[in-house]
């Protein structure tokens, strides 16, 4: 489950700044988690937990969201998810030095994908996040994900494998727009 097109719907329930409900789905962290847990269990019941993954963005600030209680909320949520049998948990803004990341790694028994916390809006490090990703692998992540480096490099995996230089991301003004410019027009290493 990605937050993409649904505009971080799950996070809008998790974040106290956007969840203004006064029923059992709003208020304390245990209530704000309820919607996520119900969605996860409904989707997992329909298609099988091993075919479902969940992506979480602790501390997300998109769409005016503010999460003030990540150190309470996410350990509680991951604790509830631990027995779910999901294919993976994917954590964004992952920082191996952060106690929250270490806690999530300890408490989540399944595959953990980590997206390193890189400068946003940029610029990206010249290695696209490779070194940050390797630190996360050393800290226990099973897999890493990279976003903007992949956008700018259609052959990112090959480039990382052979230590080739990366295309630079051409600019934020090209993101979240229509058309191919800035999405599918980055050159591969060997066309
Ligand atoms: C143009 C663009 C579109 C994105 N769309 C989505 C999306 O639909 N769903 C999602 O979960 N993350 C989306 N992201 C966030 C990325 O998956 C990733 O978490 C983010 O870019 C941070 O990783 P990075 O520092 O390697 O770029 C998008 C990022 C960019 C730049």
Describe what you observe in this structure.
With 191 residues, the chain is α/β, with parallel strands linked by helices. The protein has two domains: 9-146, Aldolase class I (TIM Barrel, Alpha-Beta Barrel), CATH 3.20.20; 147-191, no CATH class. Helix content is 35%, strand content 10%. The protein has helices at residues 9-14, 29-32, 34-47, 70-81, 99-107, 130-138, 148-152, 156-162, and strands at residues 53-56, 88-94, 111-116, 143-144. Strands 1-2-3-4 form a four-stranded parallel sheet, covered by helices on one side. Strand 1, helix 4 (70-81) and strand 2 form a beta-alpha-beta unit. The longest helix is centred in the N-terminal third of the chain and has 14 residues, at 34-47. The chain starts with 8 loop residues before the first helix and ends in a 29-residue tail after the last helix. The mean pLDDT is 94. Bound molecules: flavin mononucleotide. Flavin mononucleotide (FMN) binds next to helix 7.
